[in-house]
Structures are given as structure tokens and as C-alpha cells.
Here is the input.
Amino acid sequence: MNEHPGSLLLQKLDALERRHHVLLSDEKRRRLEGLDALVEKWNRAISLVGFRKEEDRIDRYFIEALHSSLWLPAEGQAVDVGSGGGTPVLPLAIQNPHIQWTLLEPNQRKALFL
Here is the structure.
């Protein structure tokens, strides 16, 4: 576990790891940072998610999803109906790469992002 004073996302991932034992490799952290940058970019262009504040986006998009990963099986199949802007499925897919994820989203703009 690393301390990341410059990144709110990484600080919150550290806290999640300490408090709830959600273990994240350095590679998964990098992928989550990349996803956060994409979500932020796309959100400005097409109102991808409704979180206006960075802290809300990080808590609701990433931390809540990753916390729920504790209750998923190590592998298998899952369907996310109404995937929207990718929460919780995209953080879960990064955390649980051995699950085959199927995403269903009727909104073409959001489906394009996914």
C-alpha cells in the first residue's frame, strides 16, 4: 500500500484498502487513474455521469463499486443492465478481470464511451 498525497483518487484507494481490505495492485491503480481521466474528459463532453464534484465522482463511481467487489466471485459471468457511464461495472471489471462482463446500455452516447 502506497501513500499518494497528490491524487484524491489514490488517497481514497489507500483508505479503502486500509479500512475494508480491498487489495489493489499498482497496475489496477494505474488503470483506475486512467479510467478516472477518461470519465472526467467524457463527462465534460456528453454529461456522462451526474457527479459535479471530484470527491463525489471518486466516492460514488470508484470507491462504492470497488467496495462491492468484496462480494463477487473470483470468476464467472455478469451482466450490467443500464451500464450508463460505467459505474459500477468498469471499476469492477478492473478489480475482477476474471469475470466476463456483458454491458447493456441503450443510450448511444454512453454506449460509445463504454
Remarks:
- The longest helix spans residues 26-46.
- The CA atoms of residues 51 and 80 lie 20 Å apart.
